[in-house]
Amino acid sequence: MCAAGAAGGGRAVARRLGRAGEAAGATQPGSIPRRSRRRRRSVPIAYESGDEQGMSEPQRPRWEPKDWRQQLERIREMRRNRDAPVDEMGVQTCYDSSAPPEVMRYQVLLSLMLSSQTKDQVTSAAMLRLRQHGLTVDSILQMDDATLGQIIYPVGFWRNKVKYIKQTTAILKQKYGGDIPRTVEELVQLPGVGPKMAYLAMNIAWDSVSGIGIMKCVFHLGKLKGRDCSLCNIS
User: Fold this and answer.
1) What sign results for the dihedral spanned by CA atoms 216, 230, 72, 90?
2) Catalytic residue from among 161, 163, 196, 225
3) What are the two backbone dihedrals, phi and then psi, of residue 178, each rounded to the nearest 5 degrees?
4) How far apart are CA 228 and CA 219, in angstroms?
5) ∠206-212-215 over CA atoms, to 5°?
6) C-alpha separations of 118 from 73, 111, 181, 190, 193 in Å
7) pLDDT tens figures, 168-188
């Protein structure tokens, strides 16, 4: 046999041995198997409606007062003409609209303080008398208690209101530069100012709706009807 033939035969034997070794290595323990070319089928996953992860609480019917829509329409009909004393002589009419903004806001707060336990007609008349004397922070601080009492009489609890007005006015002068606070939280810290007054002051003076004041009579009526009025803002 020639050398070329021997070399060719050797290469053929080597190729056969190499294929045999690959086959043997594929079956040996610890060897890495070849990846299958077959595509795996995707299995969709669906949850039952009663599964804990997808289960939602059953919605309860929302409670509504009996015949509240009819009652609301009756109230709207009663208030259609806007001719009650509060419409013509309420706090929103007691301040001087031509005064500087900070003076106007101060007058709004004072009229609210006077309005507690007082009819709108009496509050409006007292505010008119105060404005005739020049109703500003400085004028009230310079006025003696007796004169202030004579002017605001006969508003309810006028003696206490003289004290509260003087104390509140001094705080406004020292802490707020003669203006009134911008938040309900600060307003209710003033002497003689309750939550309902604070909400109304925010609405009238600052044009900001921060809440709805509920009168005590509404609170007590709700309790008589068995309603939870613990979250009502009353003064």
Assistant:
1) positive
2) 196
3) 90, -5
4) 9
5) 120
6) 29, 11, 24, 20, 15
7) 999 999 999 999 999 999 999
